[in-house]
Amino acid sequence: MKIITATSVQNRFGQYLDECDREAVGISRNGRMKGILMGIHEYDALKAIEAAYLADLAKSATDADFLGTDESEAILRALPKPGAQIVDSEAELRQRRKKVS
C-alpha cells in the first residue's frame, strides 16, 4: 500500500483517485495514518465479507440455541414496568419464567 500525505491528496486528488482503483492508498497527517482511499470494488468486497461474517454469527447463535426474536420479545414484555417492585425471591423469579414459556 502506498502511503501519502494529506496535503499531497489535496493537491493531486484526481491522480490518487485513479491509483486507488489499483491499490489502496494510505493517507497520513503529521506522520500518523489517518485514513485509506480505496476503490469501490475493494470496498464492496470488504462489505460482502462483513455481511457474510455477521450472517455466520447469527446462524451460530441460532444453532447454539440462543433465544429467537419471539422468545426475546416475550421475556421483555414480562419484565416489570419502571417503578414496579423488583422480584426478590427465587420462587417469584421461577413463576415469571413459567409465564414466559
TrEMBL record:
Pfam families: PhdYeFM_antitox
Signal peptide residues on this chain, from the entry's feature table: none
Classification via SUPFAM superfamilies: YefM-like
InterPro entries assigned to the protein according to its UniProt record, in alphabetical order: Antitoxin_Phd/YefM, YefM-like_sf
Function of the molecule: Antitoxin component of a type II toxin-antitoxin (TA) system.
Family membership: Belongs to the phD/YefM antitoxin family.
The protein, known as: Antitoxin
Provenance organism: Skermanella cutis
